[in-house]
Amino acid sequence: MGTIIKGKYLLTDARLGKAGLLRNGGVYIQGDTIEDVGDADALCAAHPEAEAVGGDCFVLPGIIDGHSHGHGLSHVQRGVGFDFLENSLYDWTGMIDLPPDLNAKMEAWRHIRSGCTTFHHTEMGVCCDAKAYDKAAASIRAYNETGIRLAYSYGIRDINALAYDDADFYKSLPADLQHFTKDAIFFDKAKARAMCMETLQGLFRDFGAAAKIFPAPSWAHGATDEYLLLAKRFAEDHGHLPMHIHTLQTPYQRAYGLKKYGMSLLERLNKLGLVDDALSLGHAVYLNEKDVALLADTRASITHHASCNLAVRNGISPVWFLQKAGVNVALGLDEKSINDDADVFMEMRMIFYLSRIADFGLLSPSLTPYEVLAMGTRNAARCLGLENEVGALLPGMRADVITLSLDEMERDPAVVPELSPCNMLIHRGLGRHVRDVFCDGRPILRKGKCLTMDVDALYEEVRAIAGLPMNPAQRAFADNMQRLKPYMQAWNANMLDGFEREPWYLVNSRI
Rounded CA gap, 460 and 397, in Å? Predict the structure, then answer.
């Protein structure tokens, strides 16, 4: 029978700019595919048998979160806030965690309710974890039950899990902390890499038809050459899969790369043959001009986490300069959205506002609403190897469609008709305005109600677990990490000496 989703405004493809916006537009869906897009009245006349939904709303491609970690509760909800990333990684060991299936369902719900139809869970695994496959499989099955489209990447750190140059860091510790850290630093690296690849292979074999599975070495500074090359070989052996790596997130990571390898961590990845159109870098805050040119030349991507970079005191990624250089920049929430609620529209607004001061020239352009909306649709799809499948409302693409109510956005109390609808959306749109979500043509949210989960029952289950005390083993581990933390801070104290800085953005001046 088919479905026609109608809107007062309909954005077909953010990359087309104004040409992609239709008024009184409609999208005609058959099964899981978009068959036609155009004038809503004409589509209804051509397909009188189709169910018509929407109408007085904004119709968009489903939003895509290009980088998160699959924890159903936020860091704050789990009991710990934010500091510099190097400090936070120690503090976060004191957070509670939910079972994998509940994490997945909560994460999916938080995204679906704000208009996300595709979610990238990048799992930062534990070396030599015999249960890694089982935990990942439980997550993937739970995500699939919710109806959200899933990209799932898996990786580990086979070096530098506790500090930069962790083997030398170990020598700086007192005997009791050496005993505590020994197994985390000195383990069978070859075995860890082999187990990681076995986990990936199993996930690709068993879930490759239900999710986009690909490798994601956890950190550029946390991976040996051997591991990076194994991951790249896996990606190529399985059809030029995407690869995703946290890279140059903090100034310490940049300084470490320069001191350890004599080059940027991105240059190191390029030297190993990893930088190409399938690579995306998570965060990429501390890029220099040479790095930006390399990303543009190779058609590599970054995922941009504006709120997260503020939360963990990274700074601001040079997305304006990346965008103007032709680098593919994608949206990622990284579970640290500005309102602690996974609102993808608030995150796009943060991106829009945060990168507006490239210089003070009164003719200097800023990012346009269309460019930012593309980061959450077409650009993010490209990062995940889904560029020709999702991220736009075009014939032949998968039917991932959302509608937003205009009641508050346009009528509280009024917006002048001359305002561009996409300008209105980027300034006033919120996740709570989302009314309908279709993924692969399947309705998973209708009129704000989830159709694939009992959300009330899910919340009760989550609350019961969140109310339990931390188990003694985790508490002891977290306490030891706090004892270890001052030694890590002392170890890093001089790392930034001689680290030259010339900020991308001009904000203010002491003189």
Answer: 37
Q: Per-residue b/e over 359-393, b at no fewer than 16 CB within 10 Å?
A: eeeeeeeebbbbbbbbbbbbbbbbbbbbbebbbbb
Q: What would the two tokens of residue 9 be?
A: 């405004």
Per-residue confidence (pLDDT) for residue 510, from 0 to 100? 83
pLDDT at 499: 81
Q: What is the pLDDT of residue 456?
A: 98
Residues 333, 119: contact at Cβ < 8 Å?
A: no
CB atoms within 10 A of CB 419: 12
Q: Give the HSE-up count for residue 498: Cα atoms under 13 Å, Cβ half-sphere.
A: 6
Q: Are strands 328-331 and 401-405 parallel, antiparallel or unpaired?
A: unpaired
What is the C-alpha to C-alpha distance for residues 476 and 304, in angstroms, rounded to an integer?
A: 35
**C-alpha closest to that of 314 among 323, 322, 305, 327:** 305
pLDDT tens-digit profile of 135-149?
Answer: 999 999 999 999 999
Q: Are 309 and 285 in contact (CB under 8 A)?
A: yes
Let me know: does 3 contact 13? Beta carbons within 8 Å. Answer: no
Residue segments in the chain with a per-residue pLDDT below the cut of 70: none
Distance from CA of residue 306 to its chain's centroid? 11
The number of C-alpha atoms within 13 Å of 381 and in the hemisphere containing its C-beta is 24
Instruction: Report the pLDDT value the prediction gives residue 509, as an integer from 0 to 100.
Output: 82
Question: How distant, in Å, are the alpha carbons of 33, 161, 163 from that of 157?
Answer: 39, 6, 11
Pairing relation of β-strands 212-215 and 3-11? unpaired
Cβ(383)–Cβ(330) under 8 Å?
Answer: yes
Residue 20 DSSP label: G
For residue 434, the 8-state DSSP code is E
- 395 CB-near residues (< 8 Å, 6+ apart): 34, 35, 36, 37
Considering only CA atoms, which of 389, 410, 417, 391 is closest in space to residue 402? 391
Of 29, 65, 153, 53, the closest CA to residue 344 belongs to: 65
